[in-house]
């Protein structure tokens, strides 16, 4: 599903400075895998997910996702890749939920963007994440963990092959984290979704099929960060 080779991402900070957030990163993810990528803050986790999700472009290297070459896609192709192939779950739900709408309305929104409006399907996704009984509640009525489960249903709305989760349990307690993780496991098992979860939480990633580490290495130039992925 994912093959990245020598992936490089350089952010230009200003005229003189740049940050190399990914320096020659290699990563392979099989279709149907539930995998974790762990690393401390600043190691490049979000950058990697943003590349895989088509939110930003790598600077150099190779990155194929579901047969698409992310360095070569035209902007228009990248947008449809983002909408059709990937679903995102973040630590902070504020990025993708609308609190004054109900759970089901939130799940229907991304479907509308694609010209589809399927209440039944939205309800199925809410049931899959164990939120079917709360479909008609406004998001403001739900706990953090419940909102996170709705966020997962939103990510599923366009039935993407790949789910990318950035610290999905970062703002819930450990018991709720287990519930959220259980939801990912279930989606991986029953819907055969390929799932990549990045986190700094080593406890979380112990419960996944496979985990690789992304590390922040030191380089001679102070502002450069060397990052690599290795098998644990
Ligand atoms: P993590 O998610 O592991 O905390 P990030 O991918 O957010 O790491 O960041 C990796 C490095 O790249 C950090 O040094 C960060 O400051 C830098 N970085 C990330 N995004 C940008 C950006 N848009 N502009 C400049 N530097 C960035
Ligand atoms: P996380 O908690 O997942 O590591 P961050 O706070 O590092 O998230 O980053 C949140 C977003 O901001 C990411 O999309 C990341 O690429 C971007 N970002 C991180 N560091 C910088 C930076 N120094 N300048 C600009 N954008 C950044």
Automatic annotation (TrEMBL):
A molecular function (GO) term: ATP binding
Keyword field: ATP-binding, Nucleotide-binding, Transport
Domain ABC transporter residue range list: 2-232
Segments traversing the membrane: none
Keyword Transport: yes
Keyword Coiled coil included in the entry's annotation: no
Protein name: ABC transporter ATP-binding protein
Organism the protein comes from: Metabacillus halosaccharovorans
